[in-house]
Structure formats: C-alpha cells, structure tokens
Task: inverse folding
C-alpha cells in the first residue's frame, strides 16, 4: 500500500499534532517486547507459534487456507497495566496492510481500550503510522489514583511478527494474563464476519464488542471464507471448556463447492460431534445474517434464504431428537439493515454493533451466560 | 496502493463469483461517458471544471487547500434510469485511492442506490476492482415493470477524471438531472466529517444518508481540515437559494492557527454575512460533535468543550440581537458514543448514521424543512 505520510495527514485533517510528536521523540521510552505466550483470547497455551490462533499440532490437520488464516491475530489481545500518560506500540506484520474495503486501521492496526470500572470502557486515541514498522503513539492519558488496566486488540486480518510496548522510563508497565480458570470463554466458530471483516479497527469486530459488553472472554475462530464446520476445528475447540459454543458458519456455505446440502450434512455432524464431548454446553446455531442487496439482487436473496431454511430444519430436527441446550439466532434477530454493510457481504462498524447487540440480547434473554 | 487481485479476494472471502464475471466479459455493453454538466449535488452549473464542487471563478478566491479539496467529488451524484439487470461503472481518479483509516471503497469508490418507492432505498452490490481504471460491476438486478431510478454517489476523497456507465446493448440508459427549481437544497458548510471521512463508502457520508432519509438534495461543502467559515465560500453559497444553511465547521477550529477566539469572530461574521443575503433562511449552528477519547485524554476534551462554549455564546448573542430563524444543534443531540469513531476524530459508519439521525430529528422537530 502506498502510504500517506504523517505530514500529509496533518495537512489533510489538521487534527494531528506534529509538534507534540516531535517532543515525544526526545523522551526516553522503555520498551517491553511481548512474548507470544502473553497473548489472551485463545484456547491452547502451548505449542503455539507467535501470535497465531491455532496450535502447531493442527497445521497438518487443517486445510492450507485455514492454517494461513489462523495466523491472523483476530480476537487476540494483550492485557497490561501502566501509570503512564504516554504509551507506544510498535510492531511488524506480514501480509497486506489493508484491503480495498477495509482500512489499514482494521486489517493491520491495533486498538487500545481501558477499563475504568466494571463496564466503563474507554477508547484511547493513538496517532498511527503504517510504515514497514507500524507504530501507534498514545498520549495525554489522564492520571488515576490506581494503575489502569488496558486491553490492546491485535490486528484482524494480518499476521503479527513481533510487537513491543513502550512507556516513559519513569513509568511502570506490567503485562498481565487473563485468569483462565476464573471464567470460561464463549467460543465462536465462524467466517470472515466473525474474523472481523470489515471493521474499521480491531475493537469493532463484533466478537470484541460483545466481549467488552459482556465483560467475558471470547475465542475467535473465524476463518475468512473458510468457516466450514470442519472436523479438525471442531475436534480442537471441543477439547476445552466453554460457556457456550456459537456456530456462525452459514455465510461460507454460499461457496460454489458447498451449498445447502453440504451445510445440512455438516451442521448435523458438527452438533453430534460437539454433543459427544460437551453434554450440556449451550450450543447456538446462527442463521446467515443476510445481504444488504437481497431486495433487488434476488439470486443473493436465494443464497441466504435456502441456507437459513437448513439451519431452521436442523434446529427443529435436533430438538425432536431430544438434543438439549440447543438454540437458534435468526436473521431477523440479527436485524441487519440496508446500510449495515460495506460491500453487501461484510458488515461495516454499524453492522458489527448490530451483530454484537443481537448476540448480547439473545444470550441474556435465554440466560445462556451466567 | 498495492492492490489485492480479484482472484485473491475470491479466495479470501469465497463470496465473489469469478465465473459469472467471466461470462459478463462476453456480453456487449454500450458505454455512456458522463458529461460533467450531468452531475447533481452542486450549486453552480456553469464555469465548473469536471467533477469539481466549486466553479473556476473561485480558484483565485479560496486558499489552495480549499481549491484542492473542492476537486474531491464528495456529495456529488449521478442520476439515471435503466431497465438493465447489469450495470457497469468505470472511471479514473487522481490522488490516493485509500487512506490508512478509510478504505478505497470510501475514498475513491462509487456507491449505487435505487429508489423503488417514496422512501424505499435499495443498495446495490457491485464487484469492485481498484486498478488504474476503477470498475464496479453490478449484476443480477431484478426487473421491474417500470425503469428504475438510480443514484450513483461519487468518491468522497478523490478527484474523478472521467466516468462512464455501461449497460448491455439491449437495455436503455438515460442520464437524468435533478430538477433544481423543484426543491431548494440544504447547504452544508463543514469539515472532513461533512466531506465524508471516514465513511466506508460514499453513500455512508452523513450528508448522503440525510439526503436519502429526507428525500431532498444536500450540497456538500465539506473541506477536510479547511472548513474555516471563510468569506469566499460564504459569498459563494449565499448567492443561491437554500432550504436551510448548516454551519458545521467547529472541528477545524482545533487547528493550532485557529482556536476559540477565531471561531467566535468568524462565526459572528459568517452569521452576519449570511443574514445580509438570506433574510429568513433557517441557519443551523452545529457544535463540535466531540471525540471518543475525551473521557481519558482531557486535552482533547478541552478542545471541543471550549469551542462548544463559543457556539453557545454566539447563538444566544444572536438571539438577543434579534436574529431570527437561527438554531443550534448540540454535541449532546448529536450523541456520538465511544464506538462512533475510527480514529477518535472521524466517525465510522456507525457515527455517520448517528450524525444523520441527529440532523433529521432536529430538522423535523424544529420544522426547518417542509
């Protein structure tokens, strides 16, 4: 991607402050290189290479695109505490930094939030530079009596090679890890939408919004174009405890090599496999959320309508067969409107908020989470 | 910008259809090159070069950045009718096709809507290719008994050099122009936010959303970083009739060379100038919408708080001085939340919808539009 220079951005928007940035350069920062084992948001803790989402043991088990996409850090995040008023993040990624319908801030950017109270999420503005090394400079963060807890969401659509966090030399920085024994995660197996396309920044992926709104961990197993209810992935995540398991794979069954009958077969098999290992974990089948062009482009309407019939059929079939703790979130409940998408297939930030709200409402109303 | 190939996008998302695209190549399309005089969404009809927003006579009157930004086609749109099930758009732009925090689809993309009833807006999905010539292919559009009216929004942050629309040779295409005598436009003088940063596609700029929701024309005079209540721009648009005049320039007075006192002086002068030419046209002063980082980054909070005091002061001062038909839209009424921005300064699509809704509610409640 041809990069706009910082100066050009300053001229264009008149809202950045090059003078302050220059002053910062003079200050001495202490840098902490993040160990991949310090990452949160994934199930396996061992046998993982870097900021990948799947363990190395799965490399020979999954198809090549799934492995490649598992190297994207969607849903992963760092936790740290600091008393610093300035925080810097520098890192390097492998892969395209942006896509035509998703900006660099979403594809390869990071996103910083602080938690100031039980549900008081604060977003922190950073000046970003997308060069060979990507940098985010956060400044002017107000002091608090106690050190603040920060969540740094990692890029949604690219592989992070290394990452370091810097604070001024007189401040503390402590990398934390989420207490996994304290709370079981929601596990989401899905598509590009679940992976985070096309959020404008990582914090706007619906899984990350939902995680904040519910104040609980979510594991993102969204694989763009490749959320196909496959056995190696099902085998993998069913080894772990979960608060609930969410199967949101329908949008990928529109592929020419898939279709409604493959969806029916695989959905049945996935439910059976999951139930064989998770006797009581709530399992949520999610319909295709629809396309914003369905009203006029009717072949697109047919794609999701036929798949959603499959989800409804399988859901009722399972209930009749005595499967318990199984639920269905419908297209209508997701409720995406004509302006919820960027390209007709992938939600924009407005659609991402709608997805997260629909999940939150459903999970709470059905009492699927404690 | 390094471009992702179409094939790569197909692999990545599994949602495009290369076979259909190949089949389309075989079909004969008739192309209509758009004359710049066929564009809608601007005040002047003559003395305009290409798809610019300001007439050539203003080139020597405005500062260079304003003239450069006026060449961006924000808020401009083409109207056409066709019975085609396939529509293609090809065009060339000058300038960066994307920005780090705004995707190519927003910066240099086009956006197609149809109007199926008084307020039944349909969005049309297109396959896009951002190459030297940018192309959007729309297909599978359902037939209707009468020809459909289409709105094609032009790019928000780049200059269009030429543009052509193609339909299959057996279909009709008629370029229309909006009937300017039928309805006066809302005129919006503003900043990068008004220009459309950082909507994911042109139709999501708040002026374009509002224009659809109110079913009336809006003239976009948003100049990124340069919405500074300047005389040449005020002189220009006050020559024309308007349903209402909206001054939404405060976010640019955060510039180091501006600040609250410049804002106060210029706001007073602008109101006086406008009232000297428009005795009764409703005039809406808009507060700074705030930043999503205001809670923790307090220097940023101070920026908009001090500017919003200026707007409030000037508003009350004008009322006391007997100025009539003057209104104020507050930060609270705009109501942007922590997740309404991409970079803390520019709304994402969620923020754009919030902006448009706030304006719509205010304009209707205050009965400022017929």
Result:
């Amino acid at each position: 991607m041809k990069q706009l220079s910082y100066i050009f951005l300053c001229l264009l928007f008149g809202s950045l402050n090059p003078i302050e940035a220059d002053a910062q350069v003079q200050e001495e920062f202490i840098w902490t290189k993040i160990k991949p084992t310090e990452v949160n948001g994934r199930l396996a803790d061992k046998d993982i290479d870097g900021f990948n989402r799947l363990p190395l043991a799965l490399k020979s088990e999954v198809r090549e695109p799934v492995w490649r996409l598992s190297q994207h850090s969607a849903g992963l995040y760092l936790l740290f505490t600091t008393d610093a008023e300035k925080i810097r993040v520098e890192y390097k990624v492998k892969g395209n930094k942006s896509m035509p319908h998703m900006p660099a801030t979403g594809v390869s950017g990071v996103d910083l939030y602080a938690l100031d109270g039980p549900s008081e999420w604060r977003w922190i503005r950073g000046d970003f530079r997308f060069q060979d090394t990507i940098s985010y400079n956060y400044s002017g963060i107000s002091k608090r009596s106690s050190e603040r807890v920060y969540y740094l969401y990692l890029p949604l659509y690219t592989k992070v090679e290394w990452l370091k966090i810097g604070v001024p030399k007189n401040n503390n920085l402590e990398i934390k890890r989420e207490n996994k024994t304290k709370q079981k995660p929601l596990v989401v197996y899905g598509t590009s939408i679940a992976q985070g396309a096309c959020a404008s920044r990582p914090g706007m992926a619906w899984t990350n919004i939902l995680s904040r709104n519910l104040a609980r961990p979510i594991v993102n197993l969204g694989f763009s174009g490749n959320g196909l209810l496959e056995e190696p992935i099902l085998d993998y995540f069913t080894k772990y405890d979960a608060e609930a398991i969410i199967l949101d794979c329908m949008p990928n069954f529109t592929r020419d090599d898939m279709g409604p009958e493959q969806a029916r077969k695989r959905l049945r098999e996935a439910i059976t496999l999951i139930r064989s290992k998770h006797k009581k974990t709530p399992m949520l089948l999610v319909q295709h959320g629809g396309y914003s062009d369905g009203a006029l482009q009717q072949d697109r309407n047919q794609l999701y309508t036929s798949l959603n019939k499959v989800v409804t059929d399988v859901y009722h079939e399972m209930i009749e067969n005595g499967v318990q703790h199984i639920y269905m979130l419908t297209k209508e409940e997701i409720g995406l409107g004509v302006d919820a998408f960027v390209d007709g297939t992938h939600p924009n930030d407005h659609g991402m908020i709608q997805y997260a709200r629909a999940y939150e409402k459903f999970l709470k109303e059905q009492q699927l989470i404690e």
User: Anything to note?
Assistant: Chain B has two domains: 6-63+74-176, 186-365. Chain B has eleven helices and 15 strands. Residues 1-24 of chain B have pLDDT under 50 and may be disordered.
